[in-house]
Amino acid sequence: MIIMASDHRGYLLKEELKTFFNQENIITIDVGTYSKEPVDYPDFAKLGIAKVLENKNNVGIFICGSGIGMSIAANRNPKIRAGLCLNTKMAMLARKDNDANVLCLPGSLRRKKAVKIVKVFLTTSFEGGRHARRLKKISGVEK
Predict the structure, then answer these.
(1) Which of 15, 23, 91, 136 is buried most deeply by CB count within 10 Å?
(2) Interior angle at CA 47, CA 43 and CA 50, nearest 5
(3) What does the mean pLDDT of the chain come to?
(4) Are strands 2-6 and 82-84 parallel, antiparallel or unpaired?
(5) How far apart are the first and last CA of the chain?
(6) CB under 8 Å to 124, separation ≥6 — which residues?
(7) Rounded to two decimals, what is the model's pTM?
(8) pLDDT digits over 82-110, tens only?
């Protein structure tokens, strides 16, 4: 399942991505926000994290003005690996090397570019191997 979360500055891109997912018959869960009325991104990151963690196959797409705030907020949870991706290469590496379960995007991205990034993120698999060893080391740092 794809869990979508945004603040007010990510709202329009979130809605555009939801339209894309609907056209592709891909089900999403939208935890808000539901307008351009100013809100605080950590509140929606928290809601998104809770839904992502309900099932190991869930992935999140979190959007705020720059994508940085959502990324920082999401990564505060040790079970979340959120990557701020500005292009398809970053999206591929976030999944392949880091097994990211949340994609963070800036709300200013154009729909066409955002869709390309999302497609790569959703279709790239974790490579494992040396990368799995590195993720274990990250878990060690958290403790």
Answers:
(1) 91
(2) 140
(3) 95
(4) unpaired
(5) 29
(6) 91, 92, 95, 96
(7) 0.95
(8) 999 999 999 999 999 999 999 999 999 99
Domain ranges for the chain, please list them: 2-142
CATH superfamily name and code, 2-142:
Sugar-phosphate isomerase, RpiB/LacA/LacB (3.40.1400.10)
d(CA 92, CA 71): 17
Strands 102-106 and 59-64: parallel
- Length of the chain in terms of residues written: 143
Q: Give me the phi and psi of 31, to 5 degrees please.
A: -95, 10
41 C-beta neighbours (distance < 10 Å), count? 27
- Residues facing residue 4 across a β-bridge: 30, 61
| Lookup: tokens for 61 | 């797409």
Tokens of 132: 């799995």
What residue has token string 């926000």? 33
**Is residue 106 within 8 Å of 64, Cβ to Cβ?**
yes
